[in-house]
């Protein structure tokens, strides 16, 4: 919603927001028929009445939730607002005369693009907003979230100190989302408990600070002026504040305020074992690393086959089967006498968090995992691979380059392999995101093979 307000402020337009995530009744959009005294106009008529202009900026929040509704009419009603061919003569059921909405600027938000009805996507210009990196979250937390929360709780800056290490721990171990909503909730939780702690300190010290203050003021009433009495109260308050112990939040006591860490380290292996390769994926929480693991479950003449987890979708299953074919072809070229794939029944494990991706991007990682098992070779240390492929081994572009790069940096990855078609996406990233990474852009899987299984790679014992 904040980005909608910013756009409206920049364009000098009035702002109005509509949340469609929980709507189930078409009358909320189209208006109620005037059949009883409780009938009301739809949300757009209410919007125009509230802002008082014909060209406001209207933020429609949660359009990806519309796909979950059983009533198709609700989607059609919202579509009437967005379609420029129809919204010039939008008819509200309450008034029954056309309303011109062609001057209204509509901005829609969604978390998952796949859940947006296709009819909406055809009429929209899609703008993907990448998540914040750690440095950006740190600045937002320090410059805005922490300051506003402290003022809302009535806490003075000299009464509390949250160290940089504590904020960094919050970002890395508690709040992996692309935005800062969850980070704000955790900061608010910290300051709420600090306010309670400071309040308890003040209550416990009050009796020692002023013993029977009413009697003291009565005795001095005849001797002190009103100004002197006010000064006396000020001195008492200042002494009380001075006795309150400053609260310091660091890594050692952070769990006392927000609980144990939610996210553990994604980096499982310092050096991936044989049959394991590290990939990069995108989830609703942002970028993450994942390990594709291949293992042998049966061996025998002519028993070559590949078994997949039942949770994989059709697209991912197709990608895994194709990876098995390309891996067999690659093994035949590199080691013609190696009959491992022909005589081994294999199981390919893909983590569950890799399945809700909007597009397959773990195909090259699957091939590398299978070849590592077949050749008994370790994959290069600190290497992460992302990219899809064709039957001939050509590498196809992927999405979410920034999120995957951030995930690689967060987990200590030193080398990343991206498709050549994504070079422009990587070049557009900020310097602090790319710093310290050895990135290779490839067009063919043979290039990935040379990087992952170089001459210096060890052979499993």
From TrEMBL:
UniProt entry keywords in alphabetical sequence: ATP-binding, Hydrolase, Nucleotide-binding, Protease, Serine protease
Organism of this sequence: Quercus lobata
A single BP term in Gene Ontology: protein quality control for misfolded or incompletely synthesized proteins
InterPro entries in the cross-refs: ATPase_AAA_core (IPR003959), Lon_lid (IPR054594), Lon_proteolytic (IPR008269), Lon_Prtase (IPR027065), P-loop_NTPase (IPR027417), Ribosomal_Su5_D2-typ_SF (IPR020568), Ribsml_uS5_D2-typ_fold_subgr (IPR014721)
Superkingdom assignment: Eukaryota
Catalytic center residues: 361, 404
Name of protein: Lon proteolytic domain-containing protein
Family assignment from sequence similarity: Belongs to the peptidase S16 family.
A Pfam family hit: Lon_lid
A GO CC annotation given for this chain: mitochondrial matrix
Domain Lon proteolytic residues, every copy: 271-455
Molecular function, one GO term: ATP binding
